[in-house]
UniProtKB/TrEMBL annotation:
Task performed by this protein: RNA helicase.
Domain DEAD-box RNA helicase Q positions: 25-53
Protein family membership: Belongs to the DEAD box helicase family. DDX10/DBP4 subfamily.
Transmembrane segments: none
Residue span relative to the full protein: 44 to 279 of 822
Motif Q motif: where in chain: 25-53
Residue intervals of the Helicase ATP-binding domain: 56-230
Record's comment describing the protein's domains: The Q motif is unique to and characteristic of the DEAD box family of RNA helicases and controls ATP binding and hydrolysis.
Name by which UniProt lists this protein: ATP-dependent RNA helicase
Species this protein is from: Drosophila albomicans
Gene: LOC117568665
Length: 236
C-alpha cells in the first residue's frame, strides 16, 4: 500500500527545488499530492491568488514565510496547502500526534480556517481539531492529543498548555500564525511568547497578516530562520 505513496513522494520532492512563482499559472503547476489536487479541483480552486502563488513554493521548500496581503486575498490556502503537503510528505499518520498548529486571533476566523481545511483536506487522512473555547474544556483535552492539525485561539491554546500536562507539542513541525498583526494588537504578545516557549525551536513558521508588520519578525522566541517575505515592500 505504501509503494505508490513512496513513489509519489519521491517524485514530488524532486520537483520542490525548481518551483518558480513566476511560472505558476494554475494550482496544477505546483507539485501537490494527488489528494490535494483532487480536492482543489472539486472545490473549484483553479488559479492561485498572488499571495498563494508567491508563498506556497517557499513554504513547500520548508522555508519560513512572512506574508502580508489584504483581507480576501486568499491567505488561508497559502498556509493550509503547505501544511497538508508537509504532513503528507512526512507520511504523517493519526498516531503521530500534533504535526501542525495554526493560531488565529478569533473563534470565528479559526472556525473559517477549519471549514476550509475540511474542504481542501478531505481526501487526506489527517485528524484536525478546533481549540477555541466555548466548548467543554475536558472534551477538547481528550481529543486534542489525537489531532494532527490543531486550529486554536491563543488564549485557549495557552490554557491547555498550562493545565494539561499530557498535551504534547514536541512532535509539532509547523506553526502558522494567521492574522498575526491582530494577534499582537489584541494584546496576545505575552500569551504568544508563552506558547512559543512550549514549541520545539526546530520547526517551520508561516506568519500571515493583512498589514506589513516588521514587529512580527522581532517576536521573541519566534526563531524565524531567514524568512521569505511575501507582499512586503522592502524585501529584506
Ligand atoms: P484572507 O484570509 O486573505 O482574508 P481567505 O483565505 O479567507 O482570504 O479567502 C477569501 C475568499 O477567497 C474565500 O472565499 C476563498 O474561498 C476565496 N479564495 C481563496 N483562494 C482562492 C483561489 N485561488 N481561487 C478562488 N477563490 C479563492
Ligand atoms: Mg484570513
Amino acid at each position: 500500500k505504501l509503494a505508490a505513496t513512496d513513489a509519489e513522494i519521491a517524485e514530488l520532492r524532486a520537483k520542490y527545488a525548481d518551483i518558480d512563482a513566476g511560472s505558476i499559472k494554475t494550482f496544477s503547476d505546483f507539485p501537490f499530492s494527488q489528494k490535494t489536487k483532487r480536492a482543489l479541483t472539486e472545490s473549484k480552486y483553479t488559479v492561485p491568488t498572488e499571495v498563494q502563488r508567491q508563498s506556497i513554493g517557499p513554504a513547500l521548500q520548508g522555508k519560513d514565510v512572512l506574508g502580508a496581503a489584504i483581507t480576501g486575498s486568499g491567505k488561508t490556502l497559502a498556509f493550509l496547502l503547505p501544511v497538508l503537503e508537509h504532513l503528507y510528505m512526512q507520511k504523517w499518520s493519526r498516531t503521530d500526534g500534533v504535526g501542525a498548529i495554526i493560531i488565529s486571533p478569533t473563534r470565528e476566523l479559526a472556525y473559517q480556517i477549519f471549514e476550509t481545511l475540511k474542504k481542501v483536506g478531505k481526501h487526506h487522512d489527517f485528524s484536525a481539531g478546533l481549540i477555541i473555547g466555548g466548548k467543554n474544556l475536558k472534551f477538547e483535552r481528550t481529543r486534542m492529543d489525537q489531532c494532527n492539525i490543531l486550529i486554536c485561539t491563543p488564549g485557549r491554546l495557552l490554557q491547555h498548555m498550562d493545565e494539561n500536562p499530557l498535551f504534547n507539542t514536541t512532535t509539532m513541525e509547523m506553526l502558522v500564525l494567521d492574522e498575526a498583526d491582530r494577534c499582537l494588537d489584541m494584546g496576545f504578545e505575552k500569551c504568544l511568547n508563552s506558547i512559543l516557549e512550549n514549541f520545539p525551536p526546530e520547526r517551520q513558521t508561516l506568519l500571515f497578516s493583512a498589514t506589513q508588520t516588521n514587529s512580527l519578525a522581532d517576536l521573541a522566541r519566534l526563531n524565524l530562520k531567514e524568512p521569505v517575505y511575501v507582499g512586503y515592500e522592502q524585501a529584506s
